Amino acid sequence: MTYLENIGTYFLMIVEMFRKPTKWSVMKTLIFKDIDDLIIGSLGIVAFISFFVGGVVTIQTALNITNPLIPQYLVGFATRQSVILEFAPTFISIIMAGKVGSFITSSIGTMRVTEQIDALEVMGINAINYLVFPKFIALMLYPFVISIAMFLGILGGLAACVYGGFTTMDDYIIGIQTDFIPFHIVYAFIKTVVFAFILATIPSFYGYYMKGGALEVGKASTTSFVWSSVVIILLNYILTQMLLS
Amino acid sequence: MIIVENLEKSFGDVKVLKGISASFEKGKTNLIIGQSGSGKTVFLKCMLGLFKPDSGTISYDGKIYSELSDGERRDLRADMGMVFQGSALFDSMTIAENVMFPLRMFTKQSKSEMEDRVNVVLKRVNLPEAHNKMPSEASGGMQKRVAIARAIVNNPKYLFCDEPNSGLDPNTAILIDNLIQEITKEYDIITMINSHDMNSVMEIGEKIIFLKHGIKEWEGTSDDVFRTDNEALTDFVYSSNLFKKVRAAQLKENR
Q1: Inter-chain residue contact A118 with B84, CB threshold 8 Å
Q2: Fewest beta carbons within 10 Å, which of A192, A238, B187, B216?
């Protein structure tokens, strides 16, 4: 029953997010601040993880290809497919659910605990629009982060491949161009936009509707990470089934 | 004038407010007193529209809150100022930005006009040089004064304060009480203060409502408080050791 109630409240929050918009001059500042916090602030960790995981994917693939009949360029091909189809959009989104999601939940939750949200409501401000909408807009730039993750993942694979002596640079580059299907990029970005929406709204929901004190803020952050991850994984399955099968 | 009629509010099976009626006049400092859990904060939050009452009405200068449209409620809320127990300053903004916030949200003033108004109110609460400090850098008393400045910056008609001097030393608490009373007179507004501090009652309470278990147990002025024979109020007033000693001394003198 509580789950159903939470799902209902979540959708009502989404409707409320688009109602009674905050004054544009104020909203503009909030959007830029959230772009800085959520997008620019995540680039470092995303770049680091993408580069090295791309390298590991390449090494694992190369080490598992023992049959001499399998062409060497397959390493580049497998890395590209893994990075574009799953690693960049899904794996990075799970990491972002931890980094960005817990930041959103704890910042909104702390505002709830310290009555800052009550202060907004007393002033007649639609607190959900004020707090959640700028995060939603900021995270619409999330595909830009994922593009960087894709590029660096493939680049990391190239570096691991060449410097680890698994294949030549030429073979790797042939591999990443082999059987390229542009729709795979579209598919990856459709997933990315859906996950961006999840990353903005589920953590906001857990922060906004939390009750209690500092301990509960911590618990809400954990719960928001768990549910964001679960929903991302489930939607990943559904979208893959719908778009690729 | 604010008129509250037969206000009731429950949370689950727990009835927190049980038919409270009261009226509050312009230019007066009204105190809602009572022990923790007596329903003071719920009463205040119902008046602010943060909680929806189960029954009863609240009218602001003839406008019944529950009958107003969303737009009318928004306009009415722009006339309300609130000082929260923990100040509730936005911690990502400087003190000046906090005070300017209602102006940015609800007026079309230019930046220089808003800055002028912020200077006036910060000066009024004796914080003329705190503009660029963050709330975390300000003391509890300063934060309360900033919260008062933010509450009055938009010239509200109604000022609500939830335990404005909790957590402050007695001297600072008196300063805050006096500041609220002066502002009430100066701006000719209706001020409602939730408190369980007897110093506030004696210093600034022009009208006092005593709540007990969600019922309006007593109503009167600060002078009446010490003359009343209402047992619940007497128990509440003399629950502090200091007041017990004063009371004992008074009784001894009378004999």
Answers
A1: yes
A2: A238
